[in-house]
Recover the amino acids of this structure.
């Protein structure tokens, strides 16, 4: 999995900081997560192929998370897109986008498919034979979800050296890859596990933005490799969290610790702070593996 941060700051776009948007590349998919203003410019900048984006996940309908979406949808049309585009987001997103397209008489010439969300429980949004995507219900000023991306276990891979050592004919290789045992040239049965290798461990990524501290997400994100959790504030501004329904860096660290995640990535910083290192230091008080998101940063998961 490769995660590219296109933007990770809260509220207004500024010269050097952009609102939330991320690209997750995994198993032949390019998933776009949130789409703040300017997202299409950043997709260009980081050379993400527009035509490979088939699924867009929007956490909530605050402007800093989706005002880039109408522009992107229109650009796809101008580029002559024909492939389906699936948009997953809160109920109301269809009305918001279609009104703009209708008023501009710029309806798409490709299928635009909305999946409107309103459940307060985690639900499956997308699945194929290699990956699944579930919602992570959050608690924000408006209805909001995070998204959990989980790779499925891959089949075992053939260990050609071992297979040859046992004198197994290559006509059996496909069956062995599909789980069959092998037969050596002396007619001996060789168990599948002796001639195949363990597949790489499936990876998982959880995106949580924006939310007040919410412990009920812990079972959903348990043991993920990487968790992105918003940290709009530091503990010095903790009193603002209840009103604005945001979290502090320390609270993000507490969620990461309780969920036993591998790495915590912080983001959605309020621009009131002078240094991002303050966020890392605060989260490190409760959780050992803390990274700071920043625009243009790439994380290998
Ligand atoms: Zn918000």
């Amino acid at each position: 999995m490769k995660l590219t941060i296109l933007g990770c700051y809260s509220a207004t776009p500024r010269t050097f900081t952009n609102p939330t948007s991320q690209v997750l590349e995994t198993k032949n998919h390019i998933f776009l997560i949130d789409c703040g203003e300017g997202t299409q410019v950043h997709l260009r900048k980081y050379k993400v192929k527009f035509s490979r984006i088939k699924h867009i996940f929007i956490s909530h309908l605050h402007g800093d998370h989706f005002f880039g979406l109408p522009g992107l949808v229109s650009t796809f049309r101008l580029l002559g897109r024909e492939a389906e585009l699936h948009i997953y987001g809160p109920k109301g997103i269809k009305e918001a986008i279609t009104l703009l397209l209708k008023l501009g008489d710029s309806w798409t010439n490709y299928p635009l498919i909305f999946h409107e969300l309103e459940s307060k429980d985690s639900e499956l949004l997308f699945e194929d034979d290699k990956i699944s995507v579930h919602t992570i219900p959050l608690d924000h000023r408006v209805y909001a979800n995070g998204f959990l991306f989980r790779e499925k276990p891959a089949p075992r891979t053939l260990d050609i050296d071992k297979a040859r050592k046992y004198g197994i004919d290559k006509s059996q290789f496909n069956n062995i890859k599909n789980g069959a045992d092998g037969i050596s040239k002396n007619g001996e049965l060789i168990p599948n596990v002796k001639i195949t290798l363990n597949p790489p461990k499936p990876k998982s990524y959880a995106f949580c933005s924006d939310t007040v501290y919410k412990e009920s997400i812990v079972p959903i994100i348990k043991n993920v490799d990487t968790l992105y959790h918003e940290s709009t504030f530091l503990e010095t501004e903790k009193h603002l969290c209840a009103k604005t329904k945001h979290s502090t860096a320390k609270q993000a660290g507490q969620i990461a610790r309780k969920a036993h995640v591998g790495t915590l990535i912080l983001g959605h910083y309020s621009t009131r702070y002078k240094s991002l290192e303050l966020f890392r230091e605060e989260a490190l008080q409760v959780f050992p593996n803390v990274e700071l998101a920043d625009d243009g940063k790439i994380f290998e998961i």
Summary: The chain is about 25% helix and 25% strand.
